[in-house]
Structures are given as C-alpha cells and as structure tokens.
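User: Teach me something about this protein's shape.
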Amino acid sequence: MPTKTNSKRDRTLVGVVFLDGLGFGIVVPILPFVVLSYNGSASVVTLFVGLYAAASFLGSAYAGDLSDRFGRRKLISYSLIGSVLAYAGMSAIELLPSTLVLTILFLLRFITGLMTGRDAIVRATVTDDQPDQEHLKMIATVSAAYGVGAVLGPGLPSIALFFVAEDANYYALIFMVASVASLVAFAMLRVTWGKEDTPQREAKPEVRIDRVVAVRSVGLPLILTFLGVFAFSTVISITALFGNEVFGWSAMQIGWVMVIVSLFVVIARVLLVRLASEWFGEKRAMLLAVLVGVMSLIITATSVEPIQFVLGLILVSTSMAVFTVFTDTVVSREAPVEFRGFLLGASQAVAAGALFFGAILNGIMFEYVGYSAGYYLGAGLLFVAVPILIISPFPFLVAIDRNVGPSTSE
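Assistant: First, the predicted structure itself:
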C-alpha cells in the first residue's frame, strides 16, 4: 500500500516528468530550423525525429529492465545526468566546424533519446505499490504532468524571440534551458528521494524465459500502442514542415501551434481519460479514440486553411493521448511487479519504434509523394485497430476492470 514517504516520492517524480516535458517541448519547435540552417533537407529533419525515436527504443527496452534489477532511483538519476550533458553539448555546437555540426547534433540527439527510458521507470515506480484500480489514475497523472511541460516548452522559444534574434545564439540559449531543466529535475530527485530503493528482482538465468512469457501476456496492447503512436508520429515529424511549406509559418508560429495542441493533450489526459472510462468503459473508450484519430488525420491531410489544420492536429493528439494512456494502463496492471519496469519499458520501446518508422516514412512521403501523404498513411494504419478491438475477445480488456466487474469493459 502507498505510504507517506512514497507519496512524497511520487510527487517528486511528477515534477521530474514535468521538467522532462518542458525540455522536450523547448527543443522540438527549433530543431527543424537548426537542421535547415546547416543545409539539412526535409528528410534530414524527419531523420532527426526518427533517430530520437530509435534511441528511445533502445533506452526504453533496457532501462525498465535494469531498474527492476538495480533499483528505480539509480537509473532515473543516471539518465537525468545524461540529458544534462547532451543538451549542454547541443548548446555549444556553433563552436564546431560547420561540416561537423549535423554529425555531432545527431550524436547528441541520439543520447537524449536513450535517456527517455526513464519515463517507463517513473511509471513503474508510481504504480509499484498501488492497487489495480489506481493504475489508470497514476499513469494519467504522470502523462498529464509531461503534457503540461510540453505545453509550456514550445512557448518559451517563441517568447524568447521577442528579446533575441533567431540565430545561433538563440538556439544555444534554448538548448541550455533544456539542460538546466534536466539538472533541476536531478537535484529534486536526489534531495527528496534520499534513499535507494530495493530492486524488484534478482538476475537469474530463468528470468530470460520469464521475460518472454511476460511480453506475450501483454502482446495485444503492445500492438495497439504501435498503431496509436504511429498515427501520432505525423504530428511530431511533419507538422513544422507542413506548416512552413503550405502556410509559410515561422518557428514562432509553429511553436504557438504546438503549445495549443499540447494544451489540449493535457486536458485530455487530466479529464477525458477518467471520464471516458466511466462513461463508456475502457474498451469502448479506446475504440472511440481510434475512430476520432482516423477522422482527424483525414481532416489534417485535406487542410487548405490554417484553422482546419490546427483542429486536425488537436483531435489527432488528444485522441491518441487518451488511447495510449489506456494501453499503458493495461500493461501496468497485467505486469507482475518484478517485471513491471521491463514491460512498461517494452511498451515505451514499441512506442519509440512506431515513432521511428513513422518519422522516416513520413519524411520520405512528404518529400517524394506529397505533403499530406503521411497523414493518410497514419489514418490507414490506425484504422487497423478498429477490427482488432471489435472482433478480438481481448481477455486483457476484461481483466483491467476486474476490481469493479467485467461489465465496464464491454
């Protein structure tokens, strides 16, 4: 059961996740323009998104498992230090020869991606001592905290443009702010969570087989996670490019659009997740989120006016935010505590893999097929989730409501 000490720890972790979202949100709007300023193409921009996702895939796949074996606090601390150093390095890229800038930026972006594995560790930590019916609340809270940071993050570069010119020094300032955010998160963690936690399991030869069994037990929600995040990858990977090419938006305008989108994501995670679960049951809520996501991707793809484009982005982002909170909750509830970090890491790795492949394909299709092609691709793949949810028996979707009776899942 939760204790007073653990409640304090959980509040600290919510703050850490908020600062994570802030650092991520600060960098996202400016990174495409940094790449373009060093003669990178649209494909290179989306490759940066894909590289980050690939690194997140690797980091998530191992971080959660390592935290089960060696302790949550230790792994979160190490990852925060990695983020501090990587963002600080990005702030100094202007000092490098121009021929090396993109290469070093690739490397540093890869490192920041590796460090995102701590998100799975945080989710495992805040649910370790919670009853099953509280998992949705805890995961939604953590997701909302990240979203609040992501809301504020894109706005900071836009505000900074009122005071400084958009040049290399401006980009260095933004990267340094992201580094400081990770440093503050590290300090919070070490001060308020002073004692190392006990590992959830020991390293034994039979654990390898047990992990395979554990992954199979949550295979269906992992498939749904992939489809949902692939759809969302369009927002992350080509929004800046689409807005710039079709509407002539600047970095400031794109930053404010992302602020608006992120604000609605926060509202969805804070309010819609719990309400949707209570009103429709979790299975119907997931199906509704998928249908809204498909519709909104088509709205975005056919945009001829900025308001239509922004509306589409809002609907895509909020529906997939709700959807992925549900899939993560399923994984958390079904995971044995000694494998919870590993399985939540696997879920995040699947999401990162979807973001990686989505970013790469979206970039190629944007450059060689058409500006809207990536949105249509996302809609088509997301629609695959509809027959999966309708036709499949989904025993895991009954299990997630076992504390209140299975009827709410159907």
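Now, about its shape. The chain has 17 helices and no strands. The two ends are 29 Å apart (CA to CA). If you'd like, I can walk through any region in more detail.
User: That's plenty for now, thanks!
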